[in-house]
Amino acid sequence: MAKDPTFDQDAEIKRLLGIKTKVSGSTAGSLELLNAVNKGLGFGAFSFLAASIVAPVSMLAAALGIAERTLARRKESQRFSPEESDRISRIARILVHASRVFDSQEKAAQWLKTPNRALSDQVPLALLSTDVGTRMVEEMLNRIEFGIYS
User: Fold this and answer.
1) For residue range 125-134, what is the model confidence (pLDDT) as tens digits?
2) Half-sphere exposure (CA, 13 Å, Cβ side) for 131?
3) Do 36 and 85 touch, CB atoms closer than 8 A?
4) Each residue of 31-74: pLDDT tens digit?
C-alpha cells in the first residue's frame, strides 16, 4: 500500500480520541496532540477509542494497563494521568496504522481483537500495554502492509 503524502496521522489520532483540532499543519497538530497527552486526556478520549475499537471496557482497560477500579476513578475525575494518556494515544496510533493497512477501521479493530498465530496466538490489543508489545504489533502490521510472509 503506497503512503499518502497528505495523510496526517496525528490528525487521525486526534479524531479517534475526540480531540478538537484548533490548528492546521502536521507540526502544529503534533504539538497539539502532545500538549493534550501531557495535560492528561479527558475520559471522553477513552470513550471515543472504546467506541472505535468496539471492545469490552475490560479488554481496553487491560490493554492500557489500567485496573478497572482505577478506570472507574478516572471516569469520576474525568481525567487520565499523562502516562495513561500516552498509552491511550498509543492504542489510537496503532488503530490508525492498522486501519491504513486493512483499508478499514472495522477490519483493523477486528484484527486487533483476534488472536494472531504470528504473535504466539496472543491478541494484538493485549500487547499494547507495553512499548515492546507495541513494537511487535507494529512490526506485524508492517509485514502485512508490505506483503512479507509472517
Assistant:
1) 999 999 999 9
2) 2
3) yes
4) 999 999 999 999 999 999 999 999 888 899 999 999 999 999 99
Residue 85: Cβ-neighbour burial (10 angstroms; 0-12, 13-18, 19+): buried
Indicate the domain borders of the chain. Answer: 9-145
Q: Measured at the alpha carbon of residue 114, what is the angle toward residues 90 and 149, in degrees to the nearest 5?
A: 85
**C-alpha–C-alpha distance, residues 11 and 16, integer Å:** 9
Q: Tens of pLDDT along 88-144?
A: 999 999 999 999 999 999 999 999 999 999 999 999 999 999 999 999 999 999 999
C-alpha cell at 83: 502516562
Average pLDDT over residues 13-27: 80
- Residue 122: phi and psi, rounded to 5, are -90, 155
Q: If we measure between CA atoms, which residue out of 87, 44, 81, 48 comes closest to residue 65?
A: 87
Given a contact cutoff of 8 angstroms between Cβ atoms, the answer to whether 13 and 39 are in contact is no
Residue 83 near residue 69, CB atoms below 8 Å: no
